[in-house]
Fold this sequence. Notes:
The complex is a heterodimer of chains A (265) and B (785). In chain A, strands 4-5-10-6-7 form a five-stranded antiparallel beta sheet. In chain A, 33% of the residues lie in helices and 25% in strands. Chain A has three domains: 5-50, Uridine Diphospho-n-acetylenolpyruvylglucosamine Reductase, domain 2 (2-Layer Sandwich), CATH 3.30.43; 55-166, Uridine Diphospho-n-acetylenolpyruvylglucosamine Reductase, domain 3 (2-Layer Sandwich); 170-264, Enolase-like, domain 1 (2-Layer Sandwich), CATH 3.30.390. Chain A has 265 residues and is of the alpha+beta class. Chain A starts with a strand and ends with a helix. Chain B is an alpha+beta fold. Chain B folds into three domains: 32-139 and 214-254 and 259-282, Aldehyde Oxidoreductase, domain 3; 295-470 and 634-784, 2-Layer Sandwich (Aldehyde Oxidoreductase, domain 4), CATH 3.30.365; 485-630, 2-Layer Sandwich (Aldehyde Oxidoreductase, domain 4), CATH 3.30.365. In chain B, strands 3-5-1-13-10-11-12 form a seven-stranded mixed beta sheet, sandwiched between helices. Chain B has a five-stranded mixed beta sheet with strand order 7-17-16-15-8, sandwiched between helices. A four-stranded mixed beta sheet of chain B has the order 20-28-29-30, with helices on both faces. Chain B is globular. In chain B, 58% of the residues are buried. Classes of the chains: A alpha+beta (265), B alpha+beta (785). At the A-B interface, helix 11 of A face helix 4 and helix 20 of B. Bound molecules: flavin-adenine dinucleotide. Flavin-adenine dinucleotide (FAD) binds at residues 26-34, 36, 51, 71, 98-99, 103, 106-108, 110-112, 114-115, 117, 120-122, 154, 159-160, 182-183 of chain A.
Amino acid sequence: MYEFNYRHANSVPDAIAAMQAADDGKFLAGGQTMLPTMKHRLAGPSDLIDLKGIAELKGINVTDQSVTIGAMTTHAEVAASTQVQNAIPALARLAGNIGDPAVRNCGTLGGSIANNDPAADYPSAVLALGATVKTSQREIPADEFFTGMFETALAEDEIIVSVSFPVAESAAYMKFENPASRYAIVGVFVAKTAGTVRVAVTGATTCAHRALRIEEALAGELDAEKVDAVTIPVEKMNSDIHASADYRAHLVIVMAKRAIAAASS
Amino acid sequence: MTDFGIGASVKRKEDRRFLLGKGRYTDDIQPNGLTHAVFVRSPHAHAAIKQIDSSAALAAPGVIAVLTGDDLSADGIGPLICGVTVTSDDGEPHKAPAHPALAQGKVNYVGDHVAIVVAETYAQARDGAELVMVDYEVLPAVTDTATAANPGQQQIHEVAPDNVCFNWPFGDKEGVEAAFASAHKVSSLDLVNNRMVTNAMEPRAALGEYNAGTEEITLHVTTQNPHVHRLVMSAFNQLAPEHKLRVVGPDVGGGFGVKIFVYAEELVVGWACRKLNRPIKWTAERTEAFLADAHGRDHVSKAEMAMDENGRFLAMRVHTRANLGAYLSTFGTMVPSYLYAFLLAGQYATPLIYSEVKAVFTNTAPVDACRGAGRPEATFLVERLVDVCAADMGMDPAEIRRINFIPVDAFPYQTPVVQCYDSGDYNAALNKALELAGYADFPARAEAAAVRGKCRGIGISSYVEACGMAPSAAVGQLGGGVGLWESAQVRFNPTGNVQVFTGTHSHGQGHETTFAQLVCDQLGVPIDNIEVIHGDTAKTQFGMGTYGSRSLAVGGVAIAKACDKLIAKGKKIAAHALEAAEGDIEFADGSFSVAGTDKAMGIGEVAFNAYVPHSYPERLEPGFDENAFFDPTNFSFPAGTHICEVEVDPETGEVDIIKYSAVDDFGRLINPMIVAGQVHGGIAHGVGQALLEACRYDSDGQLITASYMDYTMPRADNLPSFDLDYAPTHPPDNPLGVKGCGEAGAIGAPPAVINAIANALDVKHIEMPATPETVWRAAQTAARA
Lengths: 265, 785
Ligand SMILES: Cc1cc2nc3c(=O)[nH]c(=O)nc-3n(C[C@H](O)[C@H](O)[C@H](O)COP(=O)(O)OP(=O)(O)OC[C@H]3O[C@@H](n4cnc5c(N)ncnc54)[C@H](O)[C@@H]3O)c2cc1C
């Protein structure tokens, strides 16, 4: 780790002001991505601005229509919330399977989607459920939030405040884990809401995305067999020592079918 | 059996301090004036060093020194050594390129040591290391085991043409060829034994302290064998004379072989602490452990078996290429030679065996012993080949094993490959394992799985291994530079409690309990009054350390012999005190008694008399403190059958181990709980190799699996609950009747797992690690066939 200044923020404006004053500042949420990167000396921010003290970034609010989760809510809190479990059980289960207990007790929803790791779980839920990301500046629809590998629509000094997930009729997430890191080699989130089925894929490509070909094939129905006819473009798939592109393309189909089956049962 | 004697599952004495967080590891020690070291390591697999510029580093805050290979050689510190000679087919000893502890003009693998930076704090040392400017001229890298010796490859060391360290033929070549020529059937298999990173929980560390008054260096180091470290560093590296070098292996968090070797870092730290006259500590980061700990395995082989019409093995032929890495580690040459080829008979009465091992250099980390060392490679090859033989002959894998087993009445059994097996009943273990595994009902379970769309498979591995290293004469004949006896001292204090000094070293094995049980059993002293002491050259007599499952089979016997001497002396003392003839004194349960009378005295009283000899036998030395050395007359040959049952998801290639049954012959068990723990750990290690662990370099020599994000260690949810049982035999060569048990699981497990997957998919072979993608591809091919 290189030396850095630690800044504790008490409010969103406070945090933004600290960011604007810093040479090369970074927000700190659960630190589960930020701190390992710094320990490996792959990142050396001048300032770490800790969001932990900001009350308005925390908490879960559930209505009939939506589940709104504060950016600083940990994975463990989402997983343990009976309100989330009742409203969108697939979301609670997804959170409960991220990393290990230490990661879940520190890592946050905001940190996960701001970081936008190509193999992270949450982005697929944000996309498939058609969530809205509320920031210190605006509201960003899911489809506009994730812009590329480790890239989002967020400005440097923009803070995620919360994410609002519409309650789905049914939803399911299927994750094929990397045996070493246990991130997703391929994860598929399927959500059915009022006549439409949305399908989002993580892990397979450089950035989580909606699987439009699968969505078209399903045409609003949770019918796994319809996925068999879909071809997944192999050339767009990631390829590494854990899974080659064609294996990943195959897994997208398998995980999609399993997610659809789970969502329809 | 008493509650604490031989055969009792006594809870581990050492666990109190570990569970209370009171273990004391090298990195826990904080002497006054401590400085911190970071090594500058090569980012290239192969490069010439044109220049090293330390000026910026030396100017950085807190940096005390930057030392390089030139400084090391100017002080006469010798290169690292390899302790075992293998004679190549040209009659010459193996090629041994210089292995400088800090690079001399050239680096040969990513992580190779270029310089040491010493600073007041760890962070300053790291900052300093980043400021050392090294000008490299990058050379092409050689990383692939199979092709490293091909013509036209980049040369790594001038002394080793074609990157060959040795080419070692062994066995009756003509006899084997004749048997193959007239065989009814020949089965053959190409297979790879995957390279592994050992990954002890505690990374390597070294702390050097120099006392200018006594001119003594004290080196705390993560070692499995402190005296061997001291000997090598004194005799070969000229660090300091043996009597001026104290090596301490305090609590060590796992070794698995990787902490046997004398590494560059500990030698450099030992030297630099005297040069700078400051204590220096170096602790590896996990990334450094991946890059610069010795790796294990890495063979590419072809195996062939000639059979008669009944499936009886007539002859076996093996060709292996073994990767030794960039330099020879301390025992690098021995692993793919003597520890490998001498085990190729397996449990079978195959009369003729010929093997040829070509060991090659590559631009990768040095390869040396890792739990099992050579025997897992041999066992994987033999046990996979036997399954291929069974398939080719249309026989049940259990049956082909049974008809080829060395029969129970043939022990001691001289194999055609040097080793003479001590004892065994291979059929008994197989039968018990088949029963435990529910082998007979397997087809019904497979059918039920098929209904669920899953492929079930069952795999057998009947292994034998050679451990309890080792008879010194045999070691010497083979070109080893050491004797492999073990030592013990058993010392009574005047108040009757006992200190046991062992030359072995415990780094997870539970010696402090097992050896205490042994002494409790022999001398009748309560286990709480016995302390086992190890790991410090200033406290214990010379000993050879712990590896090759030798601590009980060799070191335990030394302890028992020291106990015998105490009993013999105690009889003299008791005879005098009880006014009886020495021949009438009997010893049992801690009490010396006069036969046929009720006159007796406890061993504690005898000890007191020995230290306060007011009324004492004439000419007998005072004191109650005996030492003993034991040099075994043979290796120890644990054996057994492991059976693995898997379920494969053909859609994804995921493998689920449903059931794992192991029946082992470890002779007599001293502490069954500790033995089971060793077996559990060994199986986990073997399952890791079979399913999960892949150490991969790219063609530029970058290690692409250098963290836990990419290198998969086995975790609890990768493993089932193991079903263990034993089929013990009595090894006549071992005075305690024990065999080694520390490596057996890692040796037996890989072929059991792979045989099960091959069975599930009905394919000939599948390479390790059988990752989901590998298995999925095999399932695709099988489905098409
Ligand atoms: C061992 C391990 C295993 C893991 N396994 C998984 C897994 O299986 N699946 C998975 O999805 N993830 C996994 N993770 C990642 C984990 O979910 C992290 O928590 C997450 O990626 C980052 O969240 P964080 O709260 O720790 O953010 P931090 O690390 O603190 O920050 C990450 C980035 O987000 C920015 N940021 C944080 N909060 C905000 C905000 N409110 N507004 C704007 N920017 C913000 C930071 O500036 C930083 O750039 C794993 C991590 C570890 C260490």
